[in-house]
Amino acid sequence: MERIEHRACFNGWQDVYRHRSDALGCDMTVGVYLPPQAAHGPCPVLYWLSGLTCNEQNFITKAGAQRYAAEHGIILVAPDTSPRGDGVANDDAYDLGQGAGFYVNATQQPWATHYRMHDYVVDELPALVEADFPATGARAISGHSMGGHGALVIALRNPGRYRSVSAFSPIVAPSQVPWGEKAFSAYLGDDREAWKQYDAVELVKSAREKLPLLVEQGDADEFLDGQLRPQLLQAACEAAGHPLTLRLRPGYDHSYYFIASFIGEHIGHHARAMQG
After folding, report:
1. For labelling, which of 74, 100, 114, 125 has a CA lying 20 to 30 Å from the CA of 26?
2. 57 phi and psi, to 5 degrees?
3. Rounded CA separation 266/214 (Å)
């Protein structure tokens, strides 16, 4: 892990690191916030997955999360959203290719060579973090939009790996909305059965661990009805008896103004789960 940014923030350090990823076959950047407590001993880790077009910078510069991470003694880890580089497959559209990894392991070429974000987030990145930083091994995961989808899916697919999960404005049913249908067709092929392993609405039907889901959603979100459709997750959780807290916030849209308004509550939620 090569440190390429180092800034004092709320008595801790907001850093950015670059490293070579074996899972993705390219160099990756990742934001790491070390709270002041990390100078004195190991801290739990919250992984944040960002949305379409984002990289590691969006969350660390816009969410205001460091204040709350410093308060609770939590390390924040915010990776890029996809593999990148001259040799990495891409598309001219904003919702496919670089900046749009969708946190899946692609099976179709040309994407399968590099687009293995699920394995990167679940296995490779935590191994690096827990080897190189004072981390306790307690993990939580959260994210926004495409990253909210990633957080829910990764938590549901990997029982026992995370103490808690939350999401802001997640794509809860990618198999049923245009963003997901486009990405899954490209990355996973035309077999819709294969899509179910990366669809939170499908995964709650047979989840082995009833990890409570916390979902934050603005009711003025411009993507609410066409792309997000949280009512589908609500119905699936009710049918499966899976615990879900869905907060519909009046007046809030899809932006980081929304995330910044409630990120403190989410970090407190994860702190209680990881430190309780």
Report:
1. 74
2. -75, -35
3. 8
> For residue range 88-98, what is the model confidence (pLDDT) as tens digits?
999 999 999 99
The average pLDDT across 182-207 equals 97
Closest-CA residue to 179 (of 102, 255, 232, 236): 102
Q: How far apart are CA 139 and CA 117, in angstroms?
A: 18
Active-site residue, selected from the candidate residues 50, 145, 166, 169? 145
Catalytic residue among 72, 118, 242, 254: 254
CA–CA distance, 17 with 25 (Å, rounded to integer): 17
Distance (Å, whole) CA 135 – CA 34: 10
- For residue 25, CA distances in Å to 44, 107, 184 come to 28, 15, 21
Residues 66/10, Cβ–Cβ less than 8 Å? yes
Which pTM value belongs to this model? 0.97
How far from each other are the two terminal CA atoms of the chain, in whole angstroms?
Answer: 30
Q: List, in order, residues 6 or more apart from 257 with CB less than 8 Å away.
A: none
The residue from 80, 221, 242, 270 that is catalytic is 221
Q: Is 80 a catalytic residue?
A: no
Band of the pLDDT at 3, cuts 50, 70, 90?
very high
Burial class (CB in 10 A: 0-12, 13-18, 19+), 25: middle
Helix, strand or coil, per DSSP, at residue 171: coil
255 is catalytic: no
**Looking at residue 275, what is its pLDDT?**
86
Task: Tell me the β-bridge partners of 139.
Answer: 45
**Which residue has tokens 């026992």?**
160
Active site residue 254: yes
Could you report the per-residue pLDDT of 144-175, keeping only the tens digit for each?
Answer: 999 999 999 999 999 999 999 999 999 999 99
